[in-house]
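Input sequence (250 aa), recorded before submission:
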Amino acid sequence: MTRTVSGEKTRGTAGTRTWGAVLVLLAALPAVATYVVFALWIPSDIDRYDDYKAARACGTAPPVEWSEDCVRTVRMTVDRRELTRRQSGELTATTVDAPSRTYETSFGSRTPVLKYLDKGDEFTGTVWRGDLMTIAKGDDRQVTTDEPRNEYQMPAGLGTFTALLSALLLAHGVLRLARPRTHTRSFLGPPNTKRLVISVGIVCFVVGLICVWTGVPWWLVPLLITALSVAVGHLNVNWDREPAPGLPAE
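Predicted structure, token format:
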């Protein structure tokens, strides 16, 4: 009987350590995602935004190619307009003057221009590097989703979440490797881990969204999320802990 119990404990310990090694390896996936966000995605968007703001207006000569670096104002005709359920929409339009080119783009809002366009209507568009940036009709002007924006807070929130997720997986894996028999009694034991992931995910989304609305610089987003995540983690760890008993009455 003693040998059987000892063998079961040994197999259980080996299985726990195996899962620990798997978690350590899995931690590399969100770490790579973090690198992509902060080293590739955000810098690329920043460069594109700066290039767009620095771009000059094109001359009056017809374009040799539509993927030019200058901003060109062209007359366009609506081929298709679709209003979606979430107060957004899509548009397909073709330039009036030769050489003709058809553009497909989308909008985050129906107003002030898209809602009032119908098939065959003419409007004024601005194009840059092969994408339709804005549309205008009369005195109203509306930007498309292709226009570069100085809004990197949500990507920064996503990158911070993947970084924290990687750290959590790594810590959980190392804990299983180092303490296979007692890891469930740590602050990373169930159900704390699941609550931590969900809580941190909510914090990242909410902070990123609020920072977009308020214009907080994107590089502050990771700092704010980390600080709030530490506080949320502390509350999560102490969620099920019973309060210390009071002193006995004298």
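Checked by second reader. Strands lie at 72-83, 89-95, 102-107, 122-128, 131-137, 140-143.
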